[in-house]
Amino acid sequence: MNNVSETPTTGIEGRRKSPWPIFLVLMLGSFIAIEAATFQAPAMPTIGKHFDISEDATALLVMLYYLGLVVFSPIFGRVADSYGRKKVICLGLSCFIVSESAAALAQSFPFLVAARFVQGMSVAGILPVVLSYVAYLFPQEKRGLPLGVLIFAMSLGATTGALLGGVMIDAFGWRSIYWVSAGMGVVGLLLILWRVPETTPAQQRYQLDLPGAAMLLLTIGTLLSVPTWMSKYGLFSSPAMTALILGLVFLTLLWHIEKRATMPVFDTQIMGRKNFLLPGFIYLLFLVCHGGAIYALVFFISGRPDGNASQVGVTQMFMFGASMLAGLISGKLVDRFDERRVIIGIVVLMLTNLLVYRFFLNLSTPLWFIIVLASLLGTAQGMKGPAIMKLALRHVPTQKIGAGSGLISMMRDFGTPAGVAIGLAIFTSRRQSATQASLEDQAVNLGITNPEWLSALGDTTRAQGLSELQAALAAQGSSVEQLMSAAKLDGLASTLPAVGTIMIAVVTLALVLALSLSKPKKALL
User: Fold this and answer.
1) What DSSP string runs through 100-146?
2) How does it sit in the membrane (predicted)?
């Protein structure tokens, strides 16, 4: 097997053979992984109805996927440094094929969630390793374009995945998306086995840091559960506060354990570098905003009177298409201009989009307007990647590029599920409270003031069992079903302003941090 000579300072681009044919095949792996991930969004409302679960419970499909991705990204990054990147990518694709097939056969929601966790583990062996190839195939001054092209490929996968996912779900059911993903995984695996050469393994082999990996799993899993507990029991409820405190305790223990580890899964030396941590944290906050806003929008679109999975797919197609083009533009910009200014401009764009999201979206908003706003959100999403990744990886030692790429991926992939969990928790909580308030207001307007009847309206089965309530509503020319139908729309209408308010606060913090990024040093004349 031919090996790629690892010369990070010059890359193989300086030699006779161009690195682009190899890189284009590697991008196919990223394309497949991202397309399969975006199949999931249009499917969530349908899967929720199939298994009869709430919106915030469906967030587990995203959270468990990203939990596997976040925890295993830094592990596979180090394994790839030690044993060869091609081996890890092929292992990831093989596990991906098996887990997608298992999801297609799932007969229960817990089994489907478990399959999604394995899918996340599998993708952890693909995306971070492809990213680390950039540092070895291209010299420092030419990495912006391939990073932009990589974002383009990932966004192309997201674009086609969103559209095809919505169409397939409406035509063939939600299981079809997993069968198609498994088939694409087989194609990607065969091409990488055929065309991509192996990299030279490091002399020092990686030994799995089991205590660190276990503590990272506990930390991420506990922190991701906080929004769900808040949604179910209240913002400052005992379960929510317990989970938050435990998560912070686990994070502290993780830091102390990894400081002593020889080959840590969570490299505190890299994370301790301000010029690495700050861009990574901005990345995380940015993705919290994007994930929360987009997944709330998914349920908002599908919940409207004329909404369906195809509309969700079309909206996401335009969003990811804009992200795809923006990634290419950003890749060129960061090779020519100061990354700090590019990042600040992108965060300001995201803030502007969220203000429109908060104040201008409602049940009567035309679909074309929603698509335009989603495209602008996608533009900000696509532009941020090359700028932040290039800035962060600049401060990682060349012998730890794989570990650094894994950490960037970990922060990136924690931000999305955290945003989804927060967004859907706010969405569910606000929808339920507004629906109940609307039911009570409608009943009071009809002259119904009995406290027992008012509290029963939120439970259709219970309300229908109260014959006196049914008679009182019939006397006013109404029914429980009519009240509930109107109340559900009122509840849905209240969701996006609530989600938007929180996301505006988060992206404002990202803007403050972006303004504090170190300014580039001026070259001496």
Assistant:
1) HHHHHT--SHHHHHHHHHHHHHHHHTTHHHHHHHHHHHS-GGG-HHH
2) Multi-pass membrane protein
